[in-house]
């Protein structure tokens, strides 16, 4: 009997272990193809067939969009510094593939099958942290080597104390200072290996270093997988869609976007005005990052503070219009009073119509009423001195 109990308990433990392993594999073992990128991103941009990279994606965003700079921020997770995008489609282009900048069409995304917290190269200098997108086909060993150069204007820098803010776009340093900062900076090479995916990525600055340089405590959050294409961040976790992506082999049907645009028909980056669907309303104010040097922030802040005051003045001016409108009815209301001063016969046409037959019948009485109307106008008596009464007309 005791032996049977042990066997049953062992079977229960084995069953529970298999169940947990199955759930874990179902979450991390889901494999999709590039078709998920083509289908999910089509509503938010245009796919074109590039002779250099195949199908690439141009997002429908406003001018000034910069990958890993516009509408997002860095958060420290158990997998390093991870980019959290405010775009609903941000789960894909900022964690898979690479970006490159086109002079005419702006930022263009090239999909790939490796997931990472953010495909950027990192730098530090005295008082600043900076990052820049890694180009297509560039491995980490090349990106963090001495020979790989990124254009100076593609770097984003912030002061030590501002790194890690959720509204970090308000604290970007003006790009005119990039050359000086880059010249005095060093590369941050903090490579890690995701053994579950066999992917090498850069985790960014070490947490103790950032805490020491920024003077604030950083609490890491967990990265968990979402079952659908989306992302959501809370105080304790970042839930994001991060499936395994496999490339199609020769026997499978080659994935392709349902609609492929022609490059000559696409609006340039300066012509785009609308934001991609599904974005938060308040994101439009953050579309173009405000890149300012520390001294410029001090000089410009008073001017920026005046703008809200001017906005406050506008409603006051607008409020005056209703007051003027209130005065107009008062002026219009005076007209009835003036009508009261006029003979009652002019004010009340219906009564006149009733009186006309009576006037035709009773001429003597009408003549008696006329002097009274001429004599007694309630408000005219106060303003006009009394005049001698006209002689009474005798009746027939």
Outline the structure in words.
This protein has helices at 2-28, 35-41, 140-143, 178-183, 207-214, 294-341, 344-347, 349-361, 363-375, 380-383; strands at residues 31-32, 45-50, 54-59, 72-77, 80-85, 98-102, 106-110, 120-125, 128-133, 156-159, 185-188, 191-194, 199-202, 222-225, 231-233, 237-240, 244-245. The protein has 10 helices and 17 strands. By secondary structure, the protein is of the alpha+beta class. The longest helix has 48 residues, at 294-341. The model is unreliable at 15-27, 276-385 and 390-396 (pLDDT under 50). Strands 10-9-8-11 form a 4-stranded antiparallel β-sheet. It is globular. Helix content is 34%, strand content 19%.
Largest sheet: 4 strands, antiparallel
Strand content: 15-25%
Number of strands: 17
Low-confidence stretches: 15-27, 276-385, 390-396
Helix content: 25-40%
The overall pLDDT, averaged over residues, is: 75
Distance between the terminal alpha carbons, to the nearest Å?
140 Å
Please state how the strands of the largest beta sheet are arranged side by side: 10-9-8-11
Shape descriptor: globular
Number of helices: 10
> Class by helix and strand content?
alpha+beta
Give me the oligomer status.
single chain
- As a whole number of angstroms, the C-alpha radius of gyration is 39 Å
> Could you spell the SSE succession in H and E letters?
HEHEEEEEEEEHEHEEEHEEEEHHHHH
